[in-house]
Structure formats: structure tokens, C-alpha cells
């Protein structure tokens, strides 16, 4: 009589919950602690690794799922991205897609409100490099100092090189830029 395999036991050998024990950034591998077992270096599954590539390495203690084909931990893969008490979900809204970074920076998009927001921690900076230029269509509000290294042109009038009409000596006001 043929034996029926113990599928629960076999599944337990193929899939295991664990936590990231170490990360080798140079080789894009990590080790996983699952109960009394600590794996060797294993690759984690990235969101994308083709023409589009993402880089978001796992962090120590992050909960994960260890996938070991045929129960062979040496050939395992690590699936990260499981929320836990130590790393809870950053939102509970179905309308928001959000990235939260370790320093507190957040980039979010609320598709119901059509609102994109980027919030940086104190001292945070933003750099945009676009050799072809940057276009903003819509009202623009800037709260703070604006610095331009070349010139500012509004309605065809240069801030740096404009001339004034109706100039008079003394304390009189000049006319508008021409």
C-alpha cells in the first residue's frame, strides 16, 4: 500500500517564518533565523530586477518568509515585507500608497484626494537634476528664500538686467520695469 505524504510536515520544511539575522549588501544576500536554525547567505526577492530595478534591502529583525524548495535551506529564497509588531503598517487607508524611510521621510500619494506629498526630516534636502528643464503647470507657492544663480525672468522681464523708466534723482520712486 502506497504511503500518503504528510503534506503539513512537507510544507513546514518548504515554508518557514523567520527574521533577518544579517545582511550582506555587497552580495544582496541575507541570513534568516527561524527557530533554532540560522541559514547561510540567501538572496532576498526584490520587487523588480529586470529593465526596472529596485533596491530596498531587508533590515535586521525584519519578519520574513523563507522559501526552501524541497526543504533545502541551502537553495532558499527570502521573501521580505511582512508587517509585524516591530514594523507595523504605516497606513490603514486603501486610498494611500506610501513609502516610509528609517529617518522619518515619507512619500505618499492619496489617489482619492489626488494629492502627492513628500515630507523630509529636519535638515532634509531635495535635488532635481534635469538637463532638459523642469516644468511646473499650476499655481506655485514658495514659503522661504529663493536663490537663483543665473537670473529670474517673469513675464519676459529679467530680474537681473531689467531697466526702470521714469527715473528721477533723490528720494523719488522709479517706474515699473521695462
UniProtKB/TrEMBL annotation:
Q: Any idea where the Gp5/Type VI secretion system Vgr protein OB-fold domain is?
A: 18-83
Top-level lineage group: Bacteria
InterPro entries assigned? Gp5/Vgr_OB, GpV-like_apex, GpV/Gp45, Vgr_OB-fold_dom_sf
Pfam families for the chain: Apex (PF18946), Phage_base_V (PF04717)
Q: Which NCBIfam families match?
A: phage_P2_V
Q: What is this protein called?
A: Baseplate assembly protein
Which source organism?
A: Sphingobium cupriresistens LL01
